[in-house]
Amino acid sequence: MTAVGREMSEGERGGGDASSGRAGGSAALLREHAGVMGRVAMALVGDAARAERVLEEAAREAGAGAPPPGVGAPAWLLGLVRAASATQQSRLPLKTRPGGHDAAPTPSRLGAGDAAPARAALARLKPTEREAVVLCLVGGLEAADVAAACGVDLGTAKTRIARGVEQLLQQEAPDDGEGGAR
After folding, report:
1. What whole-number distance in Å separates Cα of residue 9 and Cα of residue 37?
2. How many whole angstroms separate alpha carbon 141 and alpha carbon 155?
3. Residues 86 and 58: beta-carbon distance below 8 Å
4. Where does the pLDDT of residue 94 fall: very low under 50, low under 70, confident under 90, or very high at 90 and above?
5. Pick from 71, 69, 2: nearest CA to 37
6. Nearest of 26, 32, 51, 28 to residue 110 by alpha carbon
7. 3-state helix, strand, coil in the chain (%, to 5)
8. Exposure string for 143-171, b = 16+ CB within 10 A, e = fewer
9. When you count CB atoms within 10 A of the terminal residue's CB, does the N or C end of the chain come out lower?
10. Which tens digits make up the pLDDT trace of 15-73?
11. What's the first-to-final CA gap in the chain, in angstroms?
12. Which domains does the chain have, with CATH numbers?
């Protein structure tokens, strides 16, 4: 989260030109949505150091632009986090990517505590479904905003969310030997 704070400080130091006004607006948006951006980054990359790099990249992008017409600020910012997370994931060796050859979730890879089972379950989803579920459940976005953040149509976003949630629920269902779910 310090990355977002650092970017805000740099944007607030700007001069009196038009671009510094945009930086000031971006700083206010970043300040307002920093918490959810951090949670989404952590949920998508699963590592505090990489989440910090994701937030730095998203803050730089936010400082250089503005939400497109018709896209809300939360959807735009979380779309920047999603894209930066994908970039971070693509830099990993295949063995350590979620769903990769040696991607079995371990406490050291996913972090300890209560979040480990949730991260392990998310790691088993397809990347597109994981992004949609995280943006919806962690980021608090509606399906239309998930669609805007992911750059897909509304139907695709709804499908990804539904499939991802369904798979998460199936992973959590205990096998009681009677064939029934809870």
Report:
1. 17
2. 15
3. no
4. low
5. 2
6. 51
7. 70, 0, 30
8. bbbbbbbbebeeebbbbbbebbbebbeee
9. C
10. 333 334 455 677 888 899 999 999 999 989 888 899 999 999 999 999 888 888 889 99
11. 38
12. 2-172 (1.20.140.160)
